[in-house]
Amino acid sequence: MIEGALWRKWVFYNIPLILFVFVLLFPFYWMIITTFRPDGELYRPWNAVNYQPFWTNNPTLEHIKYLFEETSFARWMFNTMFIALVSTIISLFCGVLAGYALARLNFPWAGSLGTVIFVTYLVPQTLLFIPLAQIIRNFELGDTPWSLILTYPTFLIPFCTWLMMGYFKAIPKELEECARIDGASRWKAMVYIVIPVAVPGILSSGIIAFTLSWNEFIYALVFLSSPDQKTVPVGVTSELIRGDVFFWGPLMAGALLGSIPVAIVYSFFVEHYVSGLTGSVKG
């Protein structure tokens, strides 16, 4: 009986989990190896003598140096960070207020309005960038970070609103009602009672919104043209792919360094803030 349970655990849990982790992490491993592999190994034929596709005996930093010395990668990182932070703050502010209104205020068609707001998030960006490009041109914001800061909330605010609406609905109304009985206005009850309890949801929404802003490609490709104004996803792919020539070393180095801020945000905030605050609320 024990052997049968152990066999089923390996077949239906352990082996699929191992395969899933391997498929998930192997691209990152390949990206790291390619970043530190010299060009002589990168372009060596697969049937060459002593060819090692999954390891390198001569690690180098030349690709990272090329990225910072021959391209505007540092500027791309700053642009991406600035745009992602500002657009996330704007979207969080609007999303928290809209989510609270839809979850707490009683007005006609509140549920239908929440559904409509979420449906707007599902509209493909390939349909929206044409009218948005006309708006950006009319306001003369093309090729500036503000063209992205003002367009990213078009898909971030609906997402944050929907997420925060569900989180606010999970908070007991009695907490807010007690504050109202003690003389607090609705605004004070929201600011001093509801929002502190909703901090884990706000941080979760902010992390996801930051990630969506950081990885966005279509709007950044359409609205930005100058090399110094580009973001990391657009700059790496447009400046390191020239015709049919792929600079694989710098490409993988840019992808690796570009993913570090998002990894830091997830590991730091989720582990130290979101999980801890959620546990304290449950406790």
TrEMBL record:
Belongs to the binding-protein-dependent transport system permease family. Its main location: membrane. It is found in: Cell membrane. It comes from Reyranella soli. One of its GO terms (biological process) is transmembrane transport. Gene3D superfamilies: MetI-like. This is Sugar ABC transporter permease. Pfam families: BPD_transp_1. It is a multi-pass membrane protein. Residues 77-269 form the ABC transmembrane type-1 domain. InterPro entries: BP-dep_ABC_trans_perm (IPR050901), MetI-like (IPR000515), MetI-like_sf (IPR035906). Keywords: Cell membrane, Membrane, Transmembrane, Transmembrane helix, Transport. Coiled coil: none annotated. The chain crosses the membrane at residues 12-33, 76-103, 115-136, 148-168, 189-214, 245-269. CDD domains: TM_PBP2 (cd06261). GO terms for cellular component: plasma membrane.
